[in-house]
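With this grant's support, the team has encoded backbone shapes as discrete tokens. A representative record is reproduced below.
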Amino acid sequence: MAQQTITANTRDILKQAHVAHYALGLQLRAAAYDENRAISVRHVRDRSKTPLAQLLMGLCAQGRNTPKMREVDMLHAEFHDAAGAVATLINAGLFDEAIDELATGYFAEAASDLSRALCYFGVEIA
């Protein structure tokens, strides 16, 4: 029963991670279109307190450190770095550049790569 609970909680965290990262992209897009410079770059870049980061640290502590898990961790870091770069563009008033980055730049690639890796990791861990 405990293993089923852990797996169910893990699946929930992975689903929430998909939603949360998509939502962050939408928030950045809205800020760029609204020309809202009140984005905390430090907050956007900090992934350490996210449920996904906590899950990965917990799995690592349990000795369940797989190549796919390391890939998700790396891509999660890249996503937050890319999101922080977009937030920096927005705060600098470079709204068109931020919108381009969100649509086709490094952020778009990082978001896509993370989403794909989360799907594969969910299958691996289930």
User: Anything to note?
Assistant: The chain has a mean pLDDT of 92. The longest helix spans residues 2-34. The radius of gyration is 16 Å. The CA atoms of residues 12 and 59 lie 15 Å apart.
